[in-house]
Write a structure and sequence with these properties.
Elements: H1 13-26, H2 30-56, H3 60-68, H4 83-87
Length: 89
């Protein structure tokens, strides 16, 4: 069985009213909704940290060496950069 803990959560009245509307629409409970929301936020923060750590270990010389090997062939149909990207370069 999973160990549970309690925490008294204080929400702004407007947030609480919106939460009540959403959980009713979704057919879930406030507890379940808040648990999922916290889990999603934690996952997003951990993912951002993971990519930050990976970027710090990047070998930029190897990256540029790989890019230097790129061919000179024109992009195939459908692989072109959108015009707005080219004009902003």
């Amino acid at each position: 069985m999973t160990t549970m803990s309690n925490y008294a959560l204080r929400l702004q009245a407007s947030v609480m009213e919106e939460l009540k509307r959403v959980v009713a629409e979704e057919g879930t409970t406030m507890n379940q909704f808040i648990n999922v929301a916290v889990a999603e936020k934690l996952a997003a923060l951990r993912t951002a940290q993971y990519f930050k750590e990976r970027a710090e270990r990047a070998d930029l010389q190897a990256f540029w060496a790989i890019l230097d090997q790129a061919g000179t062939e024109a992009p195939r149909a459908g692989d072109e950069l959108p015009e707005h990207v080219i004009s902003n370069s």
